[in-house]
Specification:
Shape: elongated
Number of strands: 2
Distance between the termini: 99 Å
Order of helices and strands: HHHHHHEEHH
Largest sheet: 2 strands, antiparallel
Structural class: mainly alpha
Strand order of the largest sheet: 1-2
CATH architecture of the largest domain: 3-Layer(aba) Sandwich
Number of helices: 8
CATH superfamily of the largest domain: His-Me finger endonucleases
CATH topology of the largest domain: His-Me finger endonuclease fold
CATH class of the largest domain: Alpha Beta
Radius of gyration: 28 Å
Helix content: over 70%
Strand content: under 5%
Length: about 180
């Protein structure tokens, strides 16, 4: 094939691709859906081959965003803050509902299962027996299995004790030792 013919062919291909962008996109989407393993393998190969380039890009993207935010004037920052306050005030219930749904989904918990847990615990924290305004869904960090519903202080306490029954017993013995006097 002569160079001129190759140039003509390339120009034809470029024009065809430009004119048929949607058709090509649909084809590529179908192919990706049929071949997820090949797509994943290709992405992995690309990431391994371009690890340094990707890190450099990520660092530069973070730096660009940081610089953009730092360059905002105090007036602009105040406007953005006011917008967010107003948006939250207008959409508070929707935002809180979305947050609760995300929490339920994170632990594969339904509203009815949550309500059943509350009933089982008599609407009280499983440890200290108080009735908190906000419930924490206590779960095993290894298995992800939900154990119960706790108030925030109890949830933090068992987290700080690394969910270890031994540490909890040692802490109880320690407290008993000094509460006798």
């Amino acid at each position: 094939m002569a160079l001129k013919d190759k140039e003509t062919y390339n120009a034809y291909q470029k024009a065809w691709r430009t004119a048929n962008k949607e058709k090509l996109k649909r084809y590529a989407d179908k192919w990706r859906a049929k071949n997820p393993d090949r797509v994943k393998a290709a992405q992995q190969r690309y990431r391994e081959a371009n690890r340094d380039r990707i890190r450099q890009y990520q660092k530069s993207a973070v730096a660009v965003e940081r610089d953009r935010l730092r360059a905002q004037t105090p007036e602009r920052k105040a406007q953005v803050r006011e917008y967010h306050k107003r948006y939250y005030a207008e959409n508070r219930n929707k935002i809180l509902a979305r947050s609760k749904e995300r929490r339920f989904a994170q632990y594969a918990l339904t509203r009815s299962a949550f309500a059943a847990m509350l009933d089982t615990q008599n609407n009280k924290c499983a440890i200290c027996q108080t009735t908190p305004k906000v419930w924490n869904i206590d779960h095993d960090h290894k298995t992800g299995k939900v154990r119960g519903l706790l108030c925030n202080p109890c949830n933090i306490a068992i987290g700080l004790l690394k969910d270890s029954p031994q540490f909890c017993l040692l802490a109880a013995k320690y407290l008993e030792k000094y509460n006798k006097s």
